[in-house]
UniProtKB/TrEMBL annotation:
Residues 172-389 form the FAM20 C-terminal domain. This is FA20A Pseudokinase. The gene is Fam20a. InterPro entries: FAM20 (IPR024869), FAM20_C (IPR009581). Its main location: Golgi. It comes from Anhinga rufa (African darter).
Length: 408
């Protein structure tokens, strides 16, 4: 704390400064303005590539806890934490041009698999899973994961020395190996042995671009109809009732429109990355009930390459519907010349933390893709292609009025 105070006094950070001006060409602003009914960014978006570079290169000017963490600080009993390995430190880093990104530090080495006895809700959360999920989402042409990039962060200069949060300052310490470390206070964990440490200052992690503020672009958080039980025993109805989808189809908005098809898209995405932790999904209210679902918080993906959790595909296998555009993209990525693992491998090489995924995880994508196509074929054999494959290839282009509009 004393060092941090001296650092701030040296830079005269407490004196009034001229207000920062918002540059219209700032990559963060251009990313927000590019959000439309079709996705978070256009297919060939130079803005996204520029945003990824800025998140890699720009100097952090402040660091803090996220708002939800602040709301929960102190409102928990650390003795009740089931498994501290399930926690995930995350911080909001701010950059020039009003840019903000969620920083998630490395918690698990790439070659480590999640132990098979772990429940999904106490699993490790992985920074490289966030990075890989963004690349996969873009390859699948969903464009529903915010731009995410890997970066080495100097935890001393880019977090400790720029934060104004005294609680965050207080959780930094120097380990016996002379590495600078920090840990999360309640509600995530309370012990320094669960900290993350630099080497001695540098720590790798993921940076995910923030979406527009809720004041500018309100979002809804909606429970997933195929939510899992977050307890050690008991099952949800969908896990024991193979006809569960019939019930879902009777409930608005799943009874018509694209919502159920978007749920199936999300299930396919989660099955490919092995994510069982999709308890809610979010949507922009601006685009109405048929808007796309945001694929946020993917850090519990890519945990076990040796196991395919087919229950994640329940929305597809129980409802037996899929978008034609999604099916065509999956079929293309199953072709030898466009194999999903090869496309992912090439895409992930663009990240500075490459290799982001180990080879077994990449090969698991090809295996899981075949299981998805097998499930679709089974549905078609049972109900016919006309009932299973929804034709969404002739959708009109969204009008300009549907594009996200922000005010400065």
């Amino acid at each position: 704390s004393r060092r941090h105070k001296l650092y701030r006094e040296e830079l005269n950070l407490t004196s009034p400064v001229a207000p920062l001006l918002l540059r219209p060409e700032a990559s963060w602003l251009q990313f927000h303005l590019g959000i439309s009914r079709d996705g978070l960014y256009p297919r060939s978006s130079p803005t996204v590539n520029r945003l990824l570079r800025d998140m890699q290169d720009f100097t952090t000017i402040s660091a803090d806890y996220s708002q939800d963490e602040k709301a929960l600080l102190g409102a928990c009993d650390c003795s009740q934490i089931v498994k501290p390995s399930g926690v995930h430190l995350k911080l909001v880093l701010r950059f020039q041009d009003f840019g903000k990104a969620m920083f998630k530090p490395m918690r698990q080495k790439r070659e480590e698999e999640t132990p098979e006895d772990f429940f999904y809700f106490i699993d490790f959360q992985r920074h490289n899973a966030e990075i890989a999920a963004f690349h996969l989402d873009r390859i699948l042409d969903f464009r529903r994961v915010p731009p995410t990039v890997g970066r080495w962060i100097n935890v001393t200069k880019e977090i400790l020395e720029v934060t104004k949060n005294e609680i965050l300052q207080s959780v930094f310490f120097v380990s016996p190996a002379s590495n600078v470390c920090f840990f999360a206070k309640c509600p995530y964990m309370c012990k320094t042995e669960y900290a993350v440490c630099g080497n001695p200052h540098l720590l790798e992690g993921s940076l995910s671009a923030f979406l527009p503020s809720l004041n500018l672009a309100p979002r809804l958080s909606i429970p997933n109809p195929w939510i899992r039980s977050y307890s050690f025993d008991g099952k949800e109805e969908w896990e024991v009732n193979p006809l569960y989808c019939n019930t879902v189809r009777e409930i608005y908005p799943y009874s018509n429109g694209n919502r159920l098809l978007n749920i199936v898209d999300m299930a396919i995405f989660d099955f490919l990355i092995g994510n069982m932790d999709r308890h809610h999904y979010e949507m922009f209210t601006k685009f109405g009930d048929d808007g796309f679902l945001l694929h946020l918080d993917n850090a519990r993906g890519f945990g076990r390459h040796s196991h395919d959790e087919t229950s994640i595909l329940a929305p597809l296998s129980q409802c037996c519907i899929i978008k034609r555009t999604t099916l065509l993209r999956l079929q293309l990525l199953a072709e030898p010349e466009y194999q999903l693992s090869d496309v992912m491998r090439e895409s992930l090489l663009q990240d500075r933390l490459a290799p982001v995924l180990t080879e077994p995880h990449l090969l698991a994508l090809d295996r899981r893709l075949q299981l998805i196509l097998k499930a679709v074929r089974k549905c078609i054999d049972t109900y016919g292609e006309a009932k299973v494959v929804a034709n969404d290839t002739m959708q009109p282009e969204a009008p300009a009025s549907d594009r996200a509009k922000l005010t400065t």
